[in-house]
Amino acid sequence: MSEGNYVIAYDIGTTGNKTCLFNIADKIRLVASCLVEYPLTITEGGKAEQSPADWWASMCKGTAEVLEEANITAEQINGISFCSQMQGLVLIDKEGNALRPAMSYMDQRAVSQYQRGFIKGLLKVSGFNMWKVLLSLHITGGGSASVKDPMWKYLWVKENEPEIFSKVYKWLDVKEYLVYQCTGRAVMTGDSANVTFMYDSRKGKNKWSKLLCNIFGVDIHHMPEVVDAVDNVGGLTEGAAVQLGLKAGIPVFGGGGDASLLGVGAGAIELYDTHIYVGTSGWVSSVYDKRKVDLSCMIASIIGARPGFYNFFGEQETSGKCMEWVKNHLALDEIGVYLKKVEIHDDPENLYYSLYEYLDKVIEDAVPGSDGVIFTPWLHGNRAPFEDPNARGVFFNIGLNTGKTEMIRSVVEGIAFHKRWLLESIEKTIKTPDTLRFVGGGAKSKVVGQILSDILGKKIEAIESPQNAGAVGAAVLIGIGLGKIKDFSEVKKYIPVKYSFEPRREFAEIYDRNYKVFKNLYYKNKKNFADLNG
Length: 534
Description:
alpha+beta
């Protein structure tokens, strides 16, 4: 092991920060990691908020713990970077202080701003104002077609909290706030800029669009400088170094959003490479070399960490979050997850060291297809291939003989059915390969990997430490920025595969039948969801 190749990546997720210490040699090796959780506050009216101070505190605590676990000194760390949740809204003043709680990507309060800004109009395309859609598509390659997009949150603050809004210096995303705390520099990486849908991503442009800002009522002076993912944004300031317990001056790299870096960390970096993510949320994403949007399926290209490439990306709002729901509300007494919850989280020697591993045996006890029980994983609405904040979870076709084992397996199958729907939507544009990479907490489970392979009809490959793929992606950026990794074309050899799964064709007929019903459950209940939750 080379002693000079230690780096730290912070993976700022929805409910916690994974601080990961890596050594970069012939592969990217995880040396130590620490998860520090923080709250996500969800309240009535679609509000979903977090305290930026909690993110920073989690970094300070996580840094101290990984250095202690690895028994190395701060002087041995050569660089830091970030992977983070995207499409948050963090408004800061000129001193870098957050002016209000951060609005999460899950926040959907800005309904009136969204409807007035992107829906209202006589001429429409796919239900949206035709003129604004076509203009946004032309300039940015996408559009703010979801109520959860950050522009509508920005406008909500402008309209509802004018005193706070008057103090705004910059509009930042999640990791950008942390980069500012580290360096004192207000920047935004290209992927985060892209999903504000204010950024002109046309070839040769690459700047904030004054036209779109004027049309939608965004102050262009609030938009920060845009940098590349591998850029050295600046050295760690003295003040930040003291708080983090690191040395001042070490390079801080731009980093990327989870939608960009989980693919890099999965080793899916060449044209058409496709990865599947099952974490709190979930998605299917393919590497593409063009801007592309499919409004009918709510799938669009996002600027990737690798220059010149995009991630053609379809998102599922709640994915692994559905399994957390199972743990909290369904498993309970029959399986003993509730009684053993402390062991699952806190005892690293426990055989069932994760929720997925604990439930593996239970899921295997139910037959493929769950005896016809089908679950829809839309516990907080959905983004693609349909945008509907009113959609919710359903257990369908429960009978007298249905037990919790069938219901729990149906949750995993429902998550996989939705990934199939996303994959098929992407394949309208891109021919995806026969082998897909699988990352996120769900990829720790061999049973989940096999179910995914069976339902998608594809070979599935899971990497080492799949739950840390975003942090691995951030480590790749540091490695390239420091010259430890030659370039992106070399990345795949640094990320080995641990498990692979082949589809079992004998279950294809059952899954095809259930999948057809799964999709119909949305179409048949769309109005019912609106009546209950609209």
